[in-house]
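Posting this for the archive.
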Amino acid sequence: MIRTSLRNKLVILLLAISVLPFASSVVFTYFYTRDSLKDQFVQENVNLLDLGKVYMESYMDELLDITLSVYSNPNLLSYLRSAGQRDYETFWTMRDELTQLLYANEHIRRVSIALLKENRNILVSKSQVGFTDISEEELADYAKADRSSNFFYIETVRQANEKGAAAGNTFTILRSLTDVPSKATLAYFTLVVSPDQVAEIGEKLYMRGKENLSILTAEGEPVFSSSFGSEDPELIERVRDSGRESGTLEWNSEDFRGVVIYNRTAMSDGGWILMKSIPFENLFERGYEITQINIAFGIFGISLAVAAAVLFSFRITSPLRILVENIRRVEKGKMQVGFQSLGRDEIGVLGESFRKMVERLNRLIEREYKLEIENKTNQLKVLQSQINPHFLHNALQSIGSLALKNRGAQVYGLLTNLSKIMRYSMNTDEDKVPLIREVNIADAYLQLYKERYCDEFEYGIDVDGGLMNAVVPKMLLQPVIENYFKHGMEAGSGEIGMLRVEGRREGEQLVVRVIDNGRGIDPGRRDELYRRFLEEQSNGSKAETNIGLRSVYFRLRFYYGPQASLTLDNRPEGGMQVEIRLPAEFETEGGEG
Protein backbone atom coordinates (compact mmCIF):
# COMPACT_ATOMS: atom_id res chain seq x y z
CA MET A 1 0.00 0.00 0.00
CA ILE A 2 2.83 2.44 0.89
CA ARG A 3 4.84 1.65 -2.25
CA THR A 4 1.89 2.11 -4.61
CA SER A 5 0.28 5.12 -2.93
CA LEU A 6 1.59 8.51 -4.07
CA ARG A 7 -0.16 10.11 -1.11
CA ASN A 8 1.79 7.99 1.41
CA LYS A 9 5.11 8.57 -0.38
CA LEU A 10 4.57 12.32 -0.30
CA VAL A 11 3.70 12.30 3.39
CA ILE A 12 6.83 10.25 4.26
CA LEU A 13 9.09 12.55 2.19
CA LEU A 14 7.77 15.70 3.82
CA LEU A 15 8.10 14.14 7.28
CA ALA A 16 11.74 13.20 6.61
CA ILE A 17 12.57 16.70 5.33
CA SER A 18 11.04 18.36 8.41
CA VAL A 19 11.90 15.86 11.16
CA LEU A 20 15.64 15.34 10.55
CA PRO A 21 16.70 19.02 10.68
CA PHE A 22 14.39 19.64 13.59
CA ALA A 23 15.71 16.69 15.59
CA SER A 24 19.32 17.84 15.06
CA SER A 25 18.39 21.35 16.13
CA VAL A 26 16.66 20.10 19.26
CA VAL A 27 19.67 17.98 20.31
CA PHE A 28 22.15 20.84 19.80
CA THR A 29 19.87 23.36 21.54
CA TYR A 30 19.29 21.00 24.45
CA PHE A 31 22.97 20.47 25.30
CA TYR A 32 23.89 24.11 24.77
CA THR A 33 20.96 25.39 26.81
CA ARG A 34 21.49 22.80 29.54
CA ASP A 35 25.09 23.80 30.12
CA SER A 36 24.32 27.50 29.99
CA LEU A 37 21.44 27.25 32.41
CA LYS A 38 23.46 24.98 34.67
CA ASP A 39 26.21 27.61 35.03
CA GLN A 40 23.62 30.34 35.55
CA PHE A 41 21.70 28.33 38.12
CA VAL A 42 24.85 27.38 40.03
CA GLN A 43 25.97 31.00 40.15
CA GLU A 44 22.59 32.07 41.48
CA ASN A 45 22.87 29.54 44.29
CA VAL A 46 26.45 30.59 45.04
CA ASN A 47 25.20 34.16 45.45
CA LEU A 48 22.35 32.92 47.62
CA LEU A 49 24.72 31.03 49.92
CA ASP A 50 26.95 34.14 50.13
CA LEU A 51 23.92 36.03 51.38
CA GLY A 52 23.12 33.24 53.85
CA LYS A 53 26.71 33.37 55.05
CA VAL A 54 26.33 37.09 55.78
CA TYR A 55 23.20 36.40 57.81
CA MET A 56 24.88 33.62 59.75
CA GLU A 57 27.96 35.70 60.52
CA SER A 58 25.78 38.56 61.71
CA TYR A 59 23.82 36.21 63.95
CA MET A 60 26.95 34.55 65.37
CA ASP A 61 28.56 37.95 65.99
CA GLU A 62 25.55 38.84 68.11
CA LEU A 63 25.84 35.63 70.17
CA LEU A 64 29.62 35.84 70.54
CA ASP A 65 29.34 39.45 71.68
CA ILE A 66 27.14 38.21 74.52
CA THR A 67 29.90 35.79 75.62
CA LEU A 68 32.42 38.64 75.56
CA SER A 69 30.16 40.98 77.49
CA VAL A 70 31.49 39.37 80.70
CA TYR A 71 34.69 41.38 80.29
CA SER A 72 32.75 44.64 80.26
CA ASN A 73 30.87 43.74 83.45
CA PRO A 74 32.92 44.64 86.55
CA ASN A 75 30.60 42.78 88.91
CA LEU A 76 31.03 39.51 87.05
CA LEU A 77 34.78 39.86 86.77
CA SER A 78 35.03 40.74 90.46
CA TYR A 79 33.08 37.66 91.41
CA LEU A 80 35.13 35.41 89.13
CA ARG A 81 38.38 36.67 90.62
CA SER A 82 37.08 36.20 94.18
CA ALA A 83 35.49 32.79 93.57
CA GLY A 84 35.95 30.45 96.45
CA GLN A 85 35.34 33.12 99.12
CA ARG A 86 31.61 32.31 99.31
CA ASP A 87 30.49 35.93 99.16
CA TYR A 88 26.73 35.32 98.79
CA GLU A 89 25.82 38.91 98.23
CA THR A 90 28.20 38.99 95.28
CA PHE A 91 26.83 35.63 94.13
CA TRP A 92 23.26 36.90 93.91
CA THR A 93 24.50 39.94 92.08
CA MET A 94 26.14 37.60 89.59
CA ARG A 95 22.92 35.63 89.24
CA ASP A 96 21.14 38.82 88.26
CA GLU A 97 23.84 39.61 85.70
CA LEU A 98 23.55 36.13 84.20
CA THR A 99 19.76 36.53 84.01
CA GLN A 100 20.24 39.71 82.00
CA LEU A 101 22.52 37.83 79.59
CA LEU A 102 19.90 35.05 79.35
CA TYR A 103 17.34 37.53 78.04
CA ALA A 104 19.79 39.36 75.79
CA ASN A 105 18.65 37.11 72.90
CA GLU A 106 15.30 35.38 72.59
CA HIS A 107 16.89 32.16 71.33
CA ILE A 108 19.16 31.62 74.36
CA ARG A 109 17.78 28.81 76.49
CA ARG A 110 20.40 28.61 79.24
CA VAL A 111 23.44 30.49 80.56
CA SER A 112 26.04 28.87 82.78
CA ILE A 113 29.46 29.67 84.29
CA ALA A 114 31.82 26.92 85.40
CA LEU A 115 33.95 28.15 88.36
CA LEU A 116 37.17 26.18 88.45
CA LYS A 117 38.18 27.31 91.95
CA GLU A 118 34.83 26.25 93.43
CA ASN A 119 34.50 23.24 91.10
CA ARG A 120 30.87 23.98 90.38
CA ASN A 121 28.56 25.30 87.67
CA ILE A 122 26.12 28.14 88.15
CA LEU A 123 23.17 27.55 85.75
CA VAL A 124 20.50 30.10 84.91
CA SER A 125 17.53 29.29 82.62
CA LYS A 126 14.12 30.82 82.13
CA SER A 127 12.61 28.34 84.56
CA GLN A 128 15.27 27.76 87.23
CA VAL A 129 18.62 28.66 88.85
CA GLY A 130 20.86 25.84 90.00
CA PHE A 131 24.28 24.58 91.02
CA THR A 132 26.03 21.46 89.81
CA ASP A 133 29.46 20.01 90.37
CA ILE A 134 31.89 19.98 87.46
CA SER A 135 32.52 16.45 86.23
CA GLU A 136 35.71 15.16 84.63
CA GLU A 137 33.86 14.81 81.31
CA GLU A 138 32.82 18.46 81.45
CA LEU A 139 36.38 19.54 82.19
CA ALA A 140 37.51 17.66 79.06
CA ASP A 141 34.87 19.53 76.98
CA TYR A 142 35.91 22.88 78.49
CA ALA A 143 39.48 22.22 77.44
CA LYS A 144 38.39 22.35 73.78
CA ALA A 145 37.85 26.09 74.17
CA ASP A 146 41.39 26.55 75.51
CA ARG A 147 42.81 24.79 72.45
CA SER A 148 40.89 27.04 70.06
CA SER A 149 42.68 30.05 68.64
CA ASN A 150 39.62 32.20 69.40
CA PHE A 151 39.06 30.71 72.88
CA PHE A 152 35.57 29.48 72.07
CA TYR A 153 34.10 26.21 70.83
CA ILE A 154 30.69 25.32 69.30
CA GLU A 155 29.05 21.92 69.50
CA THR A 156 25.54 20.55 68.92
CA VAL A 157 23.12 18.86 71.28
CA ARG A 158 20.90 16.44 69.36
CA GLN A 159 17.16 16.75 70.03
CA ALA A 160 15.31 13.79 71.51
CA ASN A 161 12.45 14.04 68.96
CA GLU A 162 13.27 15.71 65.67
CA LYS A 163 10.20 16.69 63.65
CA GLY A 164 11.14 18.33 60.38
CA ALA A 165 13.79 20.82 59.42
CA ALA A 166 12.53 23.62 61.64
CA ALA A 167 13.28 21.61 64.80
CA GLY A 168 17.05 21.47 64.23
CA ASN A 169 19.70 20.65 66.84
CA THR A 170 20.33 22.86 69.83
CA PHE A 171 23.94 24.14 69.91
CA THR A 172 26.19 25.46 72.67
CA ILE A 173 28.84 28.17 72.58
CA LEU A 174 31.61 27.53 75.11
CA ARG A 175 34.05 30.39 75.82
CA SER A 176 37.14 30.34 78.03
CA LEU A 177 37.28 33.39 80.35
CA THR A 178 40.84 34.41 81.30
CA ASP A 179 42.10 36.94 83.81
CA VAL A 180 43.30 39.52 81.29
CA PRO A 181 46.07 40.46 80.75
CA SER A 182 47.29 37.17 82.17
CA LYS A 183 46.33 33.89 80.54
CA ALA A 184 45.02 32.32 83.75
CA THR A 185 41.61 30.76 83.20
CA LEU A 186 38.98 32.12 85.59
CA ALA A 187 35.90 30.20 84.33
CA TYR A 188 34.13 28.82 81.31
CA PHE A 189 31.06 30.67 80.00
CA THR A 190 28.43 28.63 78.15
CA LEU A 191 25.36 29.64 76.06
CA VAL A 192 22.81 26.98 75.08
CA VAL A 193 20.98 28.31 72.00
CA SER A 194 17.88 27.02 70.23
CA PRO A 195 18.16 26.41 66.44
CA ASP A 196 15.11 28.50 65.53
CA GLN A 197 17.02 31.46 64.10
CA VAL A 198 19.40 29.18 62.22
CA ALA A 199 16.40 27.28 60.80
CA GLU A 200 14.75 30.56 59.77
CA ILE A 201 17.88 31.55 57.84
CA GLY A 202 18.15 28.08 56.31
CA GLU A 203 14.54 27.99 55.09
CA LYS A 204 15.26 31.02 52.89
CA LEU A 205 18.19 29.39 51.14
CA TYR A 206 16.60 26.40 49.35
CA MET A 207 13.46 25.19 47.59
CA ARG A 208 11.65 22.58 49.62
CA GLY A 209 11.20 19.28 47.83
CA LYS A 210 13.72 20.12 45.09
CA GLU A 211 16.94 20.88 46.98
CA ASN A 212 18.64 19.90 50.24
CA LEU A 213 20.37 22.33 52.60
CA SER A 214 22.47 21.67 55.70
CA ILE A 215 24.03 24.18 58.11
CA LEU A 216 26.89 22.51 59.95
CA THR A 217 29.29 23.44 62.70
CA ALA A 218 33.01 23.52 61.94
CA GLU A 219 33.16 19.92 63.16
CA GLY A 220 30.52 18.85 60.62
CA GLU A 221 27.63 18.46 63.09
CA PRO A 222 24.25 19.52 61.60
CA VAL A 223 22.40 22.33 63.37
CA PHE A 224 19.85 22.66 60.57
CA SER A 225 19.02 20.23 57.76
CA SER A 226 16.20 20.06 55.25
CA SER A 227 16.33 16.27 55.71
CA PHE A 228 17.79 15.23 59.06
CA GLY A 229 19.41 11.82 59.07
CA SER A 230 20.09 11.75 55.32
CA GLU A 231 23.39 13.65 55.43
CA ASP A 232 26.24 11.86 53.68
CA PRO A 233 29.22 11.68 56.14
CA GLU A 234 31.66 11.14 53.26
CA LEU A 235 30.39 14.27 51.50
CA ILE A 236 30.64 16.34 54.69
CA GLU A 237 34.20 15.12 55.23
CA ARG A 238 35.05 16.00 51.63
CA VAL A 239 33.78 19.57 52.10
CA ARG A 240 35.58 20.02 55.46
CA ASP A 241 38.86 18.75 54.04
CA SER A 242 38.67 20.95 50.95
CA GLY A 243 40.29 23.82 52.87
CA ARG A 244 38.40 26.32 50.71
CA GLU A 245 36.03 28.97 51.96
CA SER A 246 33.50 28.21 49.19
CA GLY A 247 33.18 26.05 46.11
CA THR A 248 31.16 23.59 44.05
CA LEU A 249 31.59 19.92 43.26
CA GLU A 250 29.66 17.12 41.55
CA TRP A 251 28.71 14.21 43.78
CA ASN A 252 27.53 10.73 42.83
CA SER A 253 26.32 8.23 45.38
CA GLU A 254 23.55 5.67 45.76
CA ASP A 255 21.17 8.27 47.22
CA PHE A 256 22.21 11.42 45.39
CA ARG A 257 23.50 12.53 42.00
CA GLY A 258 23.98 16.23 41.47
CA VAL A 259 25.92 19.39 42.30
CA VAL A 260 26.98 20.42 45.82
CA ILE A 261 27.57 24.12 46.61
CA TYR A 262 29.14 25.10 49.93
CA ASN A 263 30.27 28.21 51.77
CA ARG A 264 32.02 28.68 55.11
CA THR A 265 31.73 31.50 57.62
CA ALA A 266 34.83 33.10 59.08
CA MET A 267 36.57 31.13 61.82
CA SER A 268 36.05 34.10 64.13
CA ASP A 269 32.34 33.44 63.69
CA GLY A 270 32.59 29.71 64.30
CA GLY A 271 33.57 28.45 60.84
CA TRP A 272 30.00 27.21 60.11
CA ILE A 273 29.45 25.40 56.81
CA LEU A 274 26.43 26.11 54.58
CA MET A 275 26.09 23.17 52.16
CA LYS A 276 23.44 22.93 49.45
CA SER A 277 22.77 19.81 47.31
CA ILE A 278 20.91 20.15 44.00
CA PRO A 279 19.92 16.97 42.06
CA PHE A 280 20.71 16.95 38.35
CA GLU A 281 17.02 16.62 37.43
CA ASN A 282 16.24 19.89 39.21
CA LEU A 283 19.42 21.56 37.98
CA PHE A 284 18.49 20.81 34.38
CA GLU A 285 14.78 21.45 34.84
CA ARG A 286 14.85 24.76 33.00
CA GLY A 287 16.75 23.16 30.15
CA TYR A 288 14.10 20.46 29.97
CA GLU A 289 11.38 23.11 29.87
CA ILE A 290 13.05 25.01 27.01
CA THR A 291 13.61 21.74 25.18
CA GLN A 292 9.95 20.87 25.60
CA ILE A 293 8.99 24.26 24.17
CA ASN A 294 11.26 23.63 21.17
CA ILE A 295 9.74 20.20 20.71
CA ALA A 296 6.25 21.68 20.91
CA PHE A 297 7.08 24.23 18.19
CA GLY A 298 8.68 21.49 16.14
CA ILE A 299 5.62 19.28 16.46
CA PHE A 300 3.52 22.24 15.40
CA GLY A 301 5.73 22.71 12.34
CA ILE A 302 5.59 19.02 11.50
CA SER A 303 1.83 19.10 11.92
CA LEU A 304 1.65 21.94 9.41
CA ALA A 305 3.80 19.97 6.98
CA VAL A 306 1.69 16.85 7.42
CA ALA A 307 -1.48 18.89 7.05
CA ALA A 308 -0.16 20.40 3.81
CA ALA A 309 0.77 16.96 2.48
CA VAL A 310 -2.56 15.46 3.43
CA LEU A 311 -4.44 18.45 1.99
CA PHE A 312 -2.57 18.22 -1.26
CA SER A 313 -2.96 14.45 -1.59
CA PHE A 314 -6.59 14.44 -0.53
CA ARG A 315 -7.64 17.31 -2.74
CA ILE A 316 -8.28 15.03 -5.68
CA THR A 317 -9.56 11.93 -3.86
CA SER A 318 -11.63 13.58 -1.12
CA PRO A 319 -14.63 14.50 -3.36
CA LEU A 320 -14.93 10.87 -4.46
CA ARG A 321 -14.63 9.68 -0.85
CA ILE A 322 -17.37 12.08 0.23
CA LEU A 323 -19.64 10.92 -2.57
CA VAL A 324 -19.07 7.24 -1.69
CA GLU A 325 -19.73 7.90 2.01
CA ASN A 326 -23.03 9.62 1.20
CA ILE A 327 -24.09 6.80 -1.10
CA ARG A 328 -23.43 4.34 1.74
CA ARG A 329 -25.48 6.50 4.13
CA VAL A 330 -28.41 6.49 1.70
CA GLU A 331 -28.09 2.72 1.41
CA LYS A 332 -28.52 2.52 5.21
CA GLY A 333 -31.66 4.65 5.07
CA LYS A 334 -30.12 7.96 6.24
CA MET A 335 -31.51 10.31 3.64
CA GLN A 336 -29.31 13.32 4.37
CA VAL A 337 -26.60 14.58 2.05
CA GLY A 338 -23.52 15.76 3.93
CA PHE A 339 -22.17 18.23 1.33
CA GLN A 340 -23.29 21.31 -0.58
CA SER A 341 -20.84 21.25 -3.48
CA LEU A 342 -17.94 19.09 -4.61
CA GLY A 343 -16.52 21.61 -7.06
CA ARG A 344 -17.18 22.63 -10.63
CA ASP A 345 -15.54 19.74 -12.42
CA GLU A 346 -17.11 16.47 -13.53
CA ILE A 347 -17.06 15.08 -9.97
CA GLY A 348 -18.85 18.24 -8.79
CA VAL A 349 -21.56 17.82 -11.47
CA LEU A 350 -22.02 14.18 -10.40
CA GLY A 351 -22.26 15.21 -6.75
CA GLU A 352 -24.82 17.93 -7.52
CA SER A 353 -26.98 15.45 -9.46
CA PHE A 354 -26.80 12.98 -6.56
CA ARG A 355 -27.73 15.69 -4.04
CA LYS A 356 -30.78 16.78 -6.07
CA MET A 357 -31.87 13.16 -6.46
CA VAL A 358 -31.74 12.59 -2.69
CA GLU A 359 -33.63 15.84 -2.08
CA ARG A 360 -36.42 14.68 -4.42
CA LEU A 361 -36.53 11.34 -2.62
CA ASN A 362 -36.74 13.14 0.73
CA ARG A 363 -39.67 15.24 -0.50
CA LEU A 364 -41.50 12.17 -1.70
CA ILE A 365 -40.83 10.33 1.58
CA GLU A 366 -41.90 13.36 3.61
CA ARG A 367 -45.15 13.69 1.64
CA GLU A 368 -45.86 9.99 2.12
CA TYR A 369 -45.07 10.27 5.83
CA LYS A 370 -47.39 13.24 6.27
CA LEU A 371 -50.16 11.35 4.48
CA GLU A 372 -49.59 8.39 6.81
CA ILE A 373 -49.75 10.66 9.87
CA GLU A 374 -52.91 12.29 8.60
CA ASN A 375 -54.44 8.87 7.93
CA LYS A 376 -53.66 7.63 11.46
CA THR A 377 -54.95 10.87 12.97
CA ASN A 378 -58.20 10.56 11.05
CA GLN A 379 -58.56 6.97 12.26
CA LEU A 380 -58.15 8.16 15.83
CA LYS A 381 -60.72 10.89 15.41
CA VAL A 382 -63.14 8.46 13.82
CA LEU A 383 -62.63 6.10 16.74
CA GLN A 384 -63.11 8.90 19.25
CA SER A 385 -66.29 10.10 17.60
CA GLN A 386 -67.63 6.58 17.05
CA ILE A 387 -70.09 5.47 19.70
CA ASN A 388 -71.40 1.97 19.35
CA PRO A 389 -75.14 2.45 18.58
CA HIS A 390 -75.91 -0.79 20.38
CA PHE A 391 -74.09 0.41 23.51
CA LEU A 392 -75.77 3.82 23.35
CA HIS A 393 -79.20 2.16 22.87
CA ASN A 394 -78.67 -0.20 25.80
CA ALA A 395 -77.34 2.61 28.04
CA LEU A 396 -80.31 4.86 27.32
CA GLN A 397 -82.73 1.95 27.75
CA SER A 398 -81.21 1.15 31.18
CA ILE A 399 -81.42 4.79 32.20
CA GLY A 400 -85.06 4.95 31.00
CA SER A 401 -85.94 1.89 33.04
CA LEU A 402 -84.48 3.46 36.14
CA ALA A 403 -86.39 6.63 35.47
CA LEU A 404 -89.67 4.65 35.33
CA LYS A 405 -88.78 3.24 38.74
CA ASN A 406 -88.20 6.78 40.11
CA ARG A 407 -84.59 6.11 40.95
CA GLY A 408 -83.62 9.70 40.26
CA ALA A 409 -80.17 9.78 41.97
CA GLN A 410 -78.97 6.68 40.17
CA VAL A 411 -80.37 8.01 36.88
CA TYR A 412 -78.40 11.20 37.45
CA GLY A 413 -75.22 9.24 38.09
CA LEU A 414 -75.60 7.15 34.96
CA LEU A 415 -76.35 10.20 32.83
CA THR A 416 -73.23 11.84 34.28
CA ASN A 417 -71.12 8.81 33.34
CA LEU A 418 -72.61 8.79 29.84
CA SER A 419 -71.93 12.50 29.41
CA LYS A 420 -68.30 11.98 30.54
CA ILE A 421 -67.85 9.28 27.92
CA MET A 422 -69.51 11.38 25.21
CA ARG A 423 -67.46 14.49 26.04
CA TYR A 424 -64.21 12.51 26.31
CA SER A 425 -64.70 10.69 22.99
CA MET A 426 -65.83 13.77 21.08
CA ASN A 427 -62.81 15.89 22.11
CA THR A 428 -60.47 15.27 19.17
CA ASP A 429 -57.82 17.85 20.13
CA GLU A 430 -55.93 15.49 22.44
CA ASP A 431 -53.56 12.72 21.39
CA LYS A 432 -52.18 11.70 24.78
CA VAL A 433 -53.68 12.00 28.25
CA PRO A 434 -52.73 11.03 31.83
CA LEU A 435 -53.52 7.42 32.69
CA ILE A 436 -55.91 8.53 35.44
CA ARG A 437 -58.30 9.99 32.84
CA GLU A 438 -58.30 6.74 30.89
CA VAL A 439 -59.00 4.85 34.14
CA ASN A 440 -61.87 7.21 35.06
CA ILE A 441 -63.52 6.87 31.63
CA ALA A 442 -63.09 3.09 31.75
CA ASP A 443 -64.74 3.07 35.20
CA ALA A 444 -67.67 5.17 33.92
CA TYR A 445 -68.02 2.88 30.89
CA LEU A 446 -68.05 -0.24 33.07
CA GLN A 447 -70.59 1.28 35.49
CA LEU A 448 -73.04 1.67 32.60
CA TYR A 449 -72.61 -2.01 31.70
CA LYS A 450 -72.90 -2.95 35.35
CA GLU A 451 -76.29 -1.20 35.48
CA ARG A 452 -77.46 -3.09 32.44
CA TYR A 453 -76.37 -6.57 33.51
CA CYS A 454 -76.77 -6.07 37.28
CA ASP A 455 -75.71 -9.27 39.06
CA GLU A 456 -74.61 -10.94 35.83
CA PHE A 457 -71.48 -8.78 35.59
CA GLU A 458 -68.68 -7.81 37.99
CA TYR A 459 -65.56 -5.72 37.34
CA GLY A 460 -62.51 -4.37 39.15
CA ILE A 461 -59.77 -1.81 38.47
CA ASP A 462 -56.36 -2.20 40.12
CA VAL A 463 -53.81 0.36 38.90
CA ASP A 464 -50.79 1.47 40.95
CA GLY A 465 -51.30 4.96 42.31
CA GLY A 466 -47.81 6.01 41.25
CA LEU A 467 -48.73 5.42 37.59
CA MET A 468 -51.74 7.72 37.44
CA ASN A 469 -49.66 10.59 35.98
CA ALA A 470 -48.16 8.39 33.25
CA VAL A 471 -48.93 9.72 29.75
CA VAL A 472 -50.68 7.24 27.41
CA PRO A 473 -52.47 7.48 24.03
CA LYS A 474 -56.10 8.53 24.33
CA MET A 475 -58.83 5.84 23.99
CA LEU A 476 -56.40 3.10 25.01
CA LEU A 477 -58.64 1.09 27.38
CA GLN A 478 -62.22 1.64 26.12
CA PRO A 479 -61.78 -0.21 22.77
CA VAL A 480 -60.24 -3.22 24.55
CA ILE A 481 -63.05 -3.30 27.14
CA GLU A 482 -65.69 -2.92 24.43
CA ASN A 483 -64.17 -5.88 22.59
CA TYR A 484 -65.07 -8.06 25.62
CA PHE A 485 -68.74 -7.08 25.54
CA LYS A 486 -68.95 -7.57 21.76
CA HIS A 487 -67.09 -10.87 21.45
CA GLY A 488 -66.34 -12.32 24.87
CA MET A 489 -69.26 -11.97 27.28
CA GLU A 490 -71.94 -14.72 27.27
CA ALA A 491 -75.00 -12.91 28.60
CA GLY A 492 -77.87 -15.11 29.86
CA SER A 493 -75.68 -18.19 30.26
CA GLY A 494 -76.03 -18.12 34.03
CA GLU A 495 -72.32 -17.45 34.55
CA ILE A 496 -71.34 -14.11 36.00
CA GLY A 497 -69.20 -12.10 33.58
CA MET A 498 -66.04 -10.74 35.15
CA LEU A 499 -63.52 -8.19 33.89
CA ARG A 500 -60.45 -6.73 35.63
CA VAL A 501 -58.14 -3.89 34.58
CA GLU A 502 -54.59 -3.98 36.03
CA GLY A 503 -51.78 -1.45 35.71
CA ARG A 504 -48.19 -2.10 36.81
CA ARG A 505 -44.70 -0.78 36.14
CA GLU A 506 -42.10 -3.33 35.08
CA GLY A 507 -38.65 -1.78 34.70
CA GLU A 508 -38.96 1.14 32.29
CA GLN A 509 -42.30 -0.09 30.86
CA LEU A 510 -45.92 0.55 31.77
CA VAL A 511 -47.91 -2.71 31.53
CA VAL A 512 -51.73 -2.61 31.34
CA ARG A 513 -53.72 -5.86 31.32
CA VAL A 514 -57.45 -6.33 30.64
CA ILE A 515 -58.47 -9.78 31.93
CA ASP A 516 -61.91 -11.42 31.51
CA ASN A 517 -63.61 -14.80 31.88
CA GLY A 518 -65.41 -14.76 28.52
CA ARG A 519 -65.23 -17.03 25.51
CA GLY A 520 -61.56 -16.31 24.82
CA ILE A 521 -60.21 -16.17 21.29
CA ASP A 522 -59.64 -18.97 18.83
CA PRO A 523 -55.88 -19.36 18.10
CA GLY A 524 -56.54 -19.31 14.38
CA ARG A 525 -58.61 -16.17 14.75
CA ARG A 526 -55.84 -14.56 16.80
CA ASP A 527 -53.20 -15.39 14.16
CA GLU A 528 -55.47 -14.00 11.47
CA LEU A 529 -55.90 -10.82 13.49
CA TYR A 530 -52.13 -10.43 13.86
CA ARG A 531 -51.70 -11.03 10.12
CA ARG A 532 -54.23 -8.32 9.30
CA PHE A 533 -52.41 -5.94 11.59
CA LEU A 534 -49.22 -6.52 9.57
CA GLU A 535 -51.03 -6.30 6.23
CA GLU A 536 -52.59 -2.95 7.08
CA GLN A 537 -49.26 -1.65 8.31
CA SER A 538 -47.58 -2.61 5.02
CA ASN A 539 -50.19 -1.79 2.36
CA GLY A 540 -52.99 0.09 4.13
CA SER A 541 -55.72 -2.56 3.55
CA LYS A 542 -58.68 -2.18 5.91
CA ALA A 543 -59.99 -5.07 7.97
CA GLU A 544 -63.74 -5.08 8.46
CA THR A 545 -63.77 -6.14 12.12
CA ASN A 546 -61.94 -5.38 15.35
CA ILE A 547 -61.54 -1.73 14.45
CA GLY A 548 -61.01 -0.92 18.14
CA LEU A 549 -58.09 -3.33 18.64
CA ARG A 550 -56.67 -2.30 15.27
CA SER A 551 -56.71 1.35 16.30
CA VAL A 552 -55.00 0.61 19.61
CA TYR A 553 -52.32 -1.50 17.89
CA PHE A 554 -51.47 1.05 15.20
CA ARG A 555 -51.45 4.00 17.56
CA LEU A 556 -49.01 2.14 19.82
CA ARG A 557 -46.77 1.42 16.83
CA PHE A 558 -47.15 5.00 15.61
CA TYR A 559 -46.18 6.62 18.93
CA TYR A 560 -43.60 4.15 20.25
CA GLY A 561 -42.50 1.89 17.40
CA PRO A 562 -41.06 -1.48 18.50
CA GLN A 563 -40.91 -0.27 22.13
CA ALA A 564 -44.67 -0.93 22.50
CA SER A 565 -46.70 -4.11 21.97
CA LEU A 566 -50.30 -5.44 22.05
CA THR A 567 -50.76 -9.17 22.75
CA LEU A 568 -53.89 -11.35 23.06
CA ASP A 569 -53.71 -14.62 24.99
CA ASN A 570 -56.23 -17.19 26.28
CA ARG A 571 -56.11 -17.87 30.00
CA PRO A 572 -55.81 -21.51 31.25
CA GLU A 573 -58.81 -21.03 33.55
CA GLY A 574 -60.88 -19.54 30.71
CA GLY A 575 -61.28 -16.11 29.26
CA MET A 576 -58.76 -13.86 27.57
CA GLN A 577 -56.00 -11.45 28.60
CA VAL A 578 -55.09 -8.41 26.53
CA GLU A 579 -51.67 -7.03 27.51
CA ILE A 580 -50.45 -3.57 26.46
CA ARG A 581 -46.80 -2.62 26.97
CA LEU A 582 -45.46 0.86 26.33
CA PRO A 583 -42.61 3.06 27.65
CA ALA A 584 -43.40 4.69 31.00
CA GLU A 585 -43.58 8.46 30.32
CA PHE A 586 -44.34 10.92 33.08
CA GLU A 587 -43.96 14.21 31.23
CA THR A 588 -46.75 15.66 29.16
CA GLU A 589 -45.73 15.83 25.53
CA GLY A 590 -47.27 17.81 22.73
CA GLY A 591 -49.85 16.08 20.55
CA GLU A 592 -48.88 14.71 17.18
CA GLY A 593 -52.17 15.43 15.40
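The two ends are 57 Å apart (CA to CA). The first strand starts at residue 108 and ends at 115.
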